[in-house]
Write a structure and sequence with these properties.
Blueprint: H1 2-38, H2 57-64, H3 66-97, H4 104-116, H5 119-129, H6 136-143, H7 160-185, H8 189-197, H9 202-230, H10 234-239, H11 251-261, H12 265-295
Length: 296
Amino acid sequence: RDLIHRKQLHLLPYALQIPILVLIAAFVLYPMFQGILVSLYDARDLVPRPSEYAGLDNFVRLFQSAETLTTIRVTLVYVFATTLAATLIGMASALALNTSFRFRGLFRAALTVPWGTPLVASALIWFWMFNPQYGVLNYAVRVLGLTPHGIAWLISPDWALPAVAAVDVWRTFPFGTLVLLTALQAIDPDLYGVAAVDGAGPVTTFWNVILPSIRPSLTILCLLYVIWGMKRFDTIWILTQGGPADATNVLSVYIYREAFRNIRVGQASAMAVVGVVLSLVVTLCYFLLERRHARS
């Protein structure tokens, strides 16, 4: 009986994981497998017919298309810009909120407003703010004398991508602030004392005490920002729908257009597979860097 009991205890952790594994298989792995399957067909719907089998032709057409290469370039620029900006702003605000000042609790609570605001509502508010005629941003630009005519934020190929990226940075940096603030508060206060005794200034303390201590949280935060940026759709679609002139046509917008506007489900699935591969490459790089750091 004791042997049976020990075996049951040994198998209990695996048994508890079965429900979540079933959910992952049903809602993640199966749709992913189905998407890969559809990408091999020149399909017009989600149930490809044997006569529509195209093999790797969809992928060949993708990488022979200038639009595809432009989409990948725009996506990479967008992901890099939003990840870098959100991380730096989140770091700066976390360092500021980690100090003691009056109304610090109020500022910490107010910081969560962009992250907690419903996405569609916040995107529509920014859409009105970007309006070239009566938007508050162009009003501020004209009042400051930067330009008498304002800026065509969302209808200019030069400004559309920075404008959309700024909205997403505004919305996502509070998450980074909270993550990094939690990491900062977990640093042993004695480390600051040792740094002060050694005569370290603020910059030296940041590079040699703070940054190494929060590195695990910082790297996982960057990974999350990259993955979220790779699949960003809602904000871009509400503000620009991928325009103008494909200036904001990221992977998710391209996939939506191909699947539901142009009714080329096979081509859209092929692009989705490319997006998954890019995300896996980023994740693999993260784990390789973590392993290398752990060995050192």
